[in-house]
Design brief:
Length: 396
């Protein structure tokens, strides 16, 4: 990885924007440029800005780059359920789909923990809005089987396959109807093996990980490496709300362990989690140049989210610092990072989890509380103990 002038990679960017670039090998024949970004929330302050200034302001700075790619993917966290739940948490208007289309998006990942906030009607409304805007949903469909289907796109004679799923641990209503693909490692591995034989390049998008932690769970790194061995040329992960590291294997496969927030209101939700706020408001555009054999070039362009929830290029020193942090974490992933992962997990996650449990207890949401407690394991006890010991040390 090396820091370069972003203008040498893509047009339509400020002159003082830096980029992190990896050249894997020379291209063999025609290429396709794929752009991926992380979590997108069209509700909260984003809705207020769209109402006041027009939705096009949300992505105006970065639109030229998103639209210039042959294919652009983002993870949509907001159910487009404005008619079902007007003003509801994480609920956005159906016009959000056309906002994404006009910003340059082609595919939207829907298999995540917020897409089911308003049940089957909310998911059905989201799928309908996405399709009517001419976007391709990924990881969700009108049935369980449809959610798991391989999406195939063809550009410049190169067939690119897309799979999308998410680890939500949330129940989905009823025996039939719209579904998203709940992550199952063995199922995903088998699906990737079969899909890789049907396309030239396979991209897998997964909503997974722990929030506000700079490192992936070690077992998720192991899973990603198995998935790349099974045929995934590119893996992109989201959900952590912060950028994590990237891995490029000796065979030229790429995994971005978390794409971070692209345009997301950290203040939205039942409780606020004001941890690592600077990092929550930092993200990136990830560019992949592909030929029939896989990835030839991989580039990261840094971004940030302003007070109105508009995406801005992280120019000058700010962008350099974002890229330096990404490089540092990527290097750490080459060694034993478990200790750093466990420390950040305890420090950044425990307080937020307790806040959520207190909120739902106060409001009598006993089913949610019981479901959460049933999921508790020994690792959570150790995490809480580490957090408590940190509080005691700071108080003494």
């Amino acid at each position: 990885m090396r820091v370069v002038d972003a203008g040498g990679v893509v047009g339509g960017v400020p002159r003082d924007l830096s980029a992190l670039a990896v050249t894997i090998r020379p291209a063999a024949g025609p290429t396709v440029r794929v752009c991926t970004v992380g979590d997108i929330g069209l509700s909260g302050r984003a809705t207020a800005t769209a109402t006041r200034r027009g939705a096009h302001h949300l992505f105006a700075d970065v639109r030229d780059v998103l639209a210039s790619a042959d294919l652009t993917l983002g993870n949509l966290e907001s159910p487009l359920a404005g008619e079902i739940a007007p003003g509801g948490a994480f609920s956005a208007a159906a016009t959000g789909a056309s906002t994404l289309r006009d910003a340059g998006f082609d595919l939207v990942h829907l298999a995540n923990n917020h897409i089911g906030e308003y049940g089957l009607p909310g998911l059905a409304a989201t799928l309908r809005a996405v399709r009517e805007a001419g976007l391709q949903p990924l990881g969700a469909g009108d049935s369980s089987g449809a959610a798991r289907e391989l999406v195939v796109t063809s550009r410049n004679g190169i067939r690119i396959g897309w799979l999308g799923c998410g680890r939500t641990l949330l129940p989905q209503e009823g025996p039939e109807g719209p579904r998203y693909w709940e992550f199952d490692e063995e199922e995903l591995l088998e699906r990737a093996k079969a899909a890789s034989r049907e396309v030239d390049v396979l991209i897998v998008s997964i909503h997974i990980g722990l929030m506000y932690v700079s490192y992936p769970r070690p077992e998720h790194k192991t899973m990603a490496e198995r998935l790349m061995s099974a045929g995934a040329d590119v893996i992109v992960m989201h959900h952590a709300h912060v950028l994590q590291g990237c891995e490029v294997t000796a065979t030229g496969h790429v995994c971005c362990y978390n794409l971070g927030n692209f345009m997301y209101d950290w203040e939205e939700g039942n409780v606020k989690v004001p941890v690592v706020l600077e990092q929550q408001n930092e993200g990136a555009v990830f560019l992949f140049d592909l030929d029939r054999e896989g990835v030839t070039n991989f580039t990261v362009l840094p971004t940030w989210i302003d007070e109105e929830c508009c995406v801005r290029w992280a120019t000058g020193n700010r962008g350099v610092q974002i890229l330096a942090r990404l490089q540092q974490i990527s290097t750490a992933l080459e060694g034993d990072f478990r200790g750093a992962f466990e420390r950040e997990r305890a420090l950044h996650n425990t307080g937020g989890i307790l806040k959520v449990l207190v909120f739902h207890t106060k409001h009598g949401h006993w089913r949610f509380v019981a479901h959460s407690l049933r999921r508790a394991r020994w690792e959570h006890v150790k995490m809480a103990a580490r957090w408590m010991s940190g509080l005691i040390r700071n108080a003494s």
